[in-house]
Write a structure and sequence with these properties.
With about 140 residues, the chain is an alpha/beta fold. It is built from five helices and four strands, in the order βααβαβαβα. The chain has one domain: Aldolase class I (TIM Barrel, Alpha-Beta Barrel), CATH 3.20.20. The protein starts with 16 loop residues before the first strand and ends with a helix.
Length: about 140
């Protein structure tokens, strides 16, 4: 995969948020999620090198976009996530992770916090175990 280059000529100003899909895989099969029924591209994990090259494209900018780790996959499946958070944090970006929380164990949570994670959303879809599991399949 080639190096991603941020196309400055296409923006009148730097975006406030940059959504980076560090994986398009998920450990669940939720019935209304496009990852479950509509994903046709190959599944995979973003490398730390590629992530760093994206962040590096914003080094010269005074105002850094917030980095959102969520889109079509479960970001905690990418083992490099804490390193990605740390790299973005060191370069002046705030960070946000949205997770189904099924893989969020104490060590991973501690590593993300220590890396400089700004915000996290734990996605829950029911007020009971039965309701949650009827939507969050697996």
């Amino acid at each position: 995969m080639g190096r991603w280059v941020y196309p400055a000529c296409f923006f009148k100003r730097i975006p406030g948020e940059l959504i980076i899909d560090v994986t398009n895989s998920c450990n669940l099969r939720c019935p209304v999620c496009p990852v479950t029924f509509a994903m046709t591209r190959q599944r995979g994990l973003m490398s730390l090198d590629l992530f760093q090259s994206i962040i590096d494209d914003f080094k010269k900018e005074d105002v850094k976009p917030a980095i959102f780790f969520n889109f079509s996959g479960e970001p905690t499946l990418n083992k490099a996530l804490p390193d990605m958070i740390a790299y973005a944090h060191r370069h002046g970006h705030s960070t946000f992770v949205s997770t189904n929380a099924t893989k969020l164990e104490a060590d991973l949570a501690r590593r993300m916090i220590e890396a400089g994670l700004t915000r996290i959303a734990l996605c829950m879809d029911g007020f009971s175990k039965q309701a949650q599991e009827s939507y969050r399949v697996n």
